[in-house]
């Protein structure tokens, strides 16, 4: 009887670890998808300088303090790219 209980306990422990691993794997895949859905700076002609009066800090895609919803990596608040869209004022 106690042998049966310990086998059940071991099986439960194994399943718990497997479930935790699955959750971690799904989380990592989700983060990878987020990054891969963003565009590369070179593909949108990103530059670290503003273009006229257009700059990342005034773009609706800008995320404080230095990120972008659609372009991967860090962006300069004074930068610019082809996807600039003026934020609502
Ligand atoms: S100008 Fe381009 S890089 Fe800058 S915040 Fe807007 S979309 Fe992102």
What is the number of strand segments? 2
Mean pLDDT, nearest integer? 78
Under CATH, the topology of the largest domain can be stated as: High-Potential Iron-Sulfur Protein, Chain A
> What spatial order of strands do you see in the largest sheet?
1-2
Low-pLDDT residue spans? 21-30
The hetero molecules present are:
iron/sulfur cluster
Query: Any guess at the CATH architecture of the largest domain?
Result: Irregular
Task: Assess the beta-strand content as a share of residues.
Answer: under 5%
List the domain count as a whole number: 2
Question: What structural category do the secondary elements indicate?
Answer: mainly alpha
User: How would you describe the shape?
Assistant: elongated
Largest sheet: 2 strands, antiparallel
* The CATH H-level homologous superfamily of the largest domain: High potential iron-sulphur protein
Radius of gyration: 23 Å
Distinct helical segment count: 1
* Oligomer status: single chain
**Run of helices and strands:** HEE
Instruction: Determine the fraction of residues in helical runs and give it as a percent range.
Output: 25-40%
Question: Which CATH first-tier class of the largest domain would you pick?
Answer: Few Secondary Structures
The separation of the N and C termini measures: 72 Å
